[in-house]
Design goal:
about 375 residues, Rossmann fold, 2 domains, elongated, binds ligand GMT, Glyco_trans_1
Length: about 375
């Protein structure tokens, strides 16, 4: 098949999933054409059957706003025709689903359109009355619309009320990147380079540091944990909350134990170093970072927001707490970090469960089946 893919190419889970899915599809022999504003950041390495078509947006001074959406649609049409695409996969509803539908109409061919809803395209933008009709249009006029969790699917149905079925396809983990290879070696090396004592437990979080990630509650939970367990907190990423989070760390006097490592190109080693991963988001459709950390052996403590409780099986593969419940998060963390048998058992169950429910082979084949089912006669 010849597959067009549009995603936000900068840091973010939807771009990661779009890219990793495209790479896996290319390994299965399909030809991939990215149509995006720049090269997706996770597209590292050379692939003979992956092409990137960048969207150049006209900056004519009559425009108050540069016409990204229309330019994208035109580019999609051009790529569909030039490369005889069979299907296009649009990641994130706004504006991609709508641009894909428009691009298909502009082209001379008729391609199958798949839209994947990733999260804030519904949970945040869906609340905006000015975007709601566009989101509904995108969903209803795609051949197949998928959501990355049952929770996101249900929220879409409740908020947007589309006259169309939505299929849940979970995100998957790239097992060649996120695994437990050389675990002890990496742990030791990473701790040494960050100045963390070898016998200290490591709690980790990584995100784009937006308010919905609720990082302050993680810091507050850590404040409680470090009183009874020798531990360090590693926070990877950058974004608007970095200032307030730093202030809180200093206010609590734990700056020697909290490592703000910024945005990292290779978070794998950080995940491998960590014993626990915390994601206490206020809204989270899935939480891809959680899954990646889990496959590197880090046991998760997540909030009961959105799809997190579909990723973590409470009490079996990690723990779920209420969004702002720092005490419960700390209690579970201390329990895990002080009871080696409990920790090891949970870690083992977690690894098996991640592979069984979020393994890339299984999920990629679900997408491949959808692609095949929407191909049209041309
Ligand atoms: O919606 C966002 O925050 C951005 C989006 C992205 O592009 O990274 O993240 C969403 O999609 C990811 C991939 O499917 C999910 O793992 C994230 O949970 C989801 N983020 C939210 O729902 C906040």
């Amino acid at each position: 098949m010849k597959i067009g893919v549009t995603c936000y190419p900068s840091v973010g889970g939807s771009g990661i999933i779009a890219t990793e899915l495209a790479i896996e599809m290319s390994k299965l022999g399909h030809e991939i054409h990215f149509i995006a504003s720049s090269v997706p950041f996770r597209l590292i390495g050379n692939y003979s059957n992956i092409y990137v078509h960048t969207v150049e947006i006209n900056d004519y001074n009559v425009f108050k706003f540069r016409p990204y959406d229309i330019t994208l649609a035109s580019k999609i049409a051009e790529v569909i025709d030039l490369h005889d695409l069979d299907v296009i996969h649009m990641h994130y509803a706004i504006p991609h689903a709508v641009a894909g539908i428009l691009g298909n109409q502009m082209s001379k061919r008729n391609v199958g359109i798949i839209t994947t809803l990733h999260g804030t395209d519904i949970t945040v933008l869906g609340h905006d009355r000015s975007l709601e009709p566009a989101i509904r249009f995108g969903i209803e006029n795609s051949d197949v619309t998928t959501a990355v969790s049952n929770s996101l699917k249900q929220q879409t149905i409740d908020m947007i009320k589309p006259n169309k079925d939505i299929e849940t396809i979970y995100n998957f983990v790239d097992e060649t990147r996120f695994n437990r290879n050389n675990l002890e070696e990496v742990k030791s090396h990473m701790k040494q380079s960050l100045g963390i004592d070898q016998d200290s437990k490591v709690i980790m979080h990584s995100s784009n540091f937006r308010k919905i990630k609720n990082i302050k509650t993680i810091v507050e939970a850590f404040y409680i944990i470090q009183k009874s367990v020798k531990s360090d907190l590693v926070l990877a990423g950058d974004g608007p909350e970095i200032g307030p989070v730093r202030d809180l760390i200093y206010e609590l006097g734990i700056e020697d134990k909290v490592h703000l490592v910024g945005q990292q190109t290779d978070v794998t080693s950080f995940y491998k170093m960590s014993d626990l991963f915390m994601l206490l988001s206020i809204k989270e459709s899935f939480g891809l970072a959680l899954l990646e950390a889990m496959n590197c052996g880090s046991v998760p403590i997540g909030s009961n927001a959105g799809g997190i409780k579909e990723v973590i099986k409470h009490g079996e593969t990690g723990y779920i707490v209420d969004v702002y419940d720092k005490e419960a998060a700390a209690e579970h963390a201390v329990e895990l970090l002080t009871n080696e048998t409990l920790y090891k058992d949970m870690q083992e169950t977690m690894i098996k469960d991640v592979r069984a429910r979020f393994g890339e082979k299984e999920i990629v084949s679900q997408y491949e089946d959808i692609y095949k089912s929407v191909i049209k006669e041309n």
